[in-house]
Request: fold
Amino acid sequence: MPIDTVASALAQGPRKWFPRIDGEGSAAVGPSVAGVRLRKKVTVSIGEPVAGGSWTVVPVTWHATSIRKLFPVMTGKVELAPVDARVTRLTVCGMYEPPFGRLGKHLDDALMHRVAEATVRELSYSIAKRLHRHAA
Reply:
């Protein structure tokens, strides 16, 4: 869809495009692995969209609602950029610092980074579907 159409859908607010978010700013995030959904309840903070030229960026941060010391805080963004007059690229990216220092880094390298990547990939697909539905 054209960038203006998708950006207008994004401007309708996160309850329209962020999957599984409630009125309190809580959501369930996580990937599906072998058909099994692995979801963690998080508190999501979504900033105001920032437009610059033909692109739009929305800052997003989340943290676990329980056992917070076991899970990192994810800080990222949702970005819209035109590919051409009829196609918009949606990018979801973020970063986090694994908890537990060196041990956490080893666990992240061995497994958790792949879970985080799968979570962001699933989130981007879900956002794209919701934006398309609200823009159509």
